[in-house]
Input
Amino acid sequence: MHNGNLEKVFDEIIGGKQYGTLNSCTIEIPGPFCLTIFGASGDLAQRKIIPALYRLNTIRLFPQDFAVLGTGRTEMTQSAFRELMKDAVKAAFPDDFDRDSWREFSARLYYVRLDYEKSESFRRLREKITSLEKSHTTEGNRIFYLAVPPSVYEPVISNIGLAGLSREEKGYTHIVIEKPFGRDIGSARSLNAILRKSFSERQIYRMDHYLAKETVQNILMFRFANSIFEPLWNRRYIDHIQITVAETLGVEHRAGYYEKAGVLRDMFQNHIFQLLALTAMEPPSIFEAERVRDEKVKVFRSVRPFPLKGIDDVVVIGQYGEGKIGKERVVGYREEPGVMSHSETPTFAALKVFIDNWRWNGVPFYLRSGKRLTKKKAEISVHFKPAPHLMFARALEEDIEPNTLALRLQPDEGISLHFQAKTPGSRICMSPVLMDFSYKKVFSLNDYERVLLDCMQGDQMLFVRSDGAEETWALLSPLIEKLESDIYPKDFPNYEAGSSGPDAAALLPRKDGRSWRAM
Ligand code: NDP
Output
């Protein structure tokens, strides 16, 4: 997962701020902070947050002064918490665990038991934070990370506010909220309202870790720092766009969450709609969080609402049955631990989306995502229109394939352009060739490391703004409601694990004379 031989981080102080360089990129080292994790004994804290914090400190992208305070209902001593986190870090870096780095990091790791519903608990929490702020000289900079199930968001947010912990006194106070941000438009609005009672928008970091992947960030650089593609990036030259996020994994140990969410809430409302916005948005006047987020919201507002009559023309859902992933036989979704035997939760969806604006009028965006598919793959492919006049048509026996540009986000990150070239020889004969750029081994910060650093630096670019979250829910909620209603027929399971999804999904582009790119 991580390369061990990271470039050394150099310290340099410019204008009171400290910088380092990593893989030839300058990175600002954040100021001192005290980070409180709610739900610190959980899966996310152990697999993602704590390993990311450990590594950022190990590669010296952290300041000298910081403290990490784990909290939760679980009764645990501080040393038991440190041991639990040590195991988590060892599991995350089986080849890279360094005892000295761990000793240095764990000396800043604390735990307090907390009842999320009780204000008394939060008074004690405030005392603990105040004492850590003194002992670690964290200059009043506070981050609260909600790594608890969504059902606990409301009491935690309210109690942080009631305890006076959301006020910015000496330094900043930021709150990080994990996905899912609500489960429909109503709950997203009410969660925003609860947040607004104690925090201003500037303090709120709605997490979509997908946005922090290097390749996702590169979509904007690729589009707006190169002059050759942007003139073509519109309805005149683009036939259609496909966005695919395919997983080979099943529901794993997260059935409790997934059963209530399903693929449209889990993948589309956040990750896939964010990819859609980055692909379709207009260039902002400056590369700054508010301007970029403005442009993304404009895309969401231009998405044509899904027609609720004739829904099958724009959406296909599915659920995996048993099958084979590689050589391994795997069970169907309904046989997974924690899943109901008659579950109607979709694990696959394909959507056809139109963006009703000048640039994209008439260009379909085909979006698909699912679990237990044939390959792990995340990709945006831009399918250009055929050349307007095929002067070679008579000399060629086959049709000429139009150009395709693929932005590969996972796993083989890179960019490739398919175009036509003459095959050597005397006959007029063409074949598609590939111009390929691969990111392999170039970058080094993973998504959680990136977003944690950004939150500490006060950069909200990679986080979702309240209107962005609400607009995407406003689009998807009526569709989800219809699909979840009893009147919508669900013939589940309808695709085999290890396949490309339900057969009906192929029809979505085929009805328009197009086809999905191979997974
Ligand atoms: P867990 O189910 O592991 O819960 C985290 C912690 O919250 C638990 O250790 C527990 O700590 C506390 N908790 C669990 N259930 C309840 C409950 N019913 N009431 C009160 N407290 C409870 O969740 P994850 O760590 O998997 O996820 C945390 C958040 O992050 C969720 O919102 C999830 O959707 C989101 N997320 C998770 C991802 C992942 O990979 N795990 C990925 C993306 C988002 P204690 O009992 O000590 O209080």
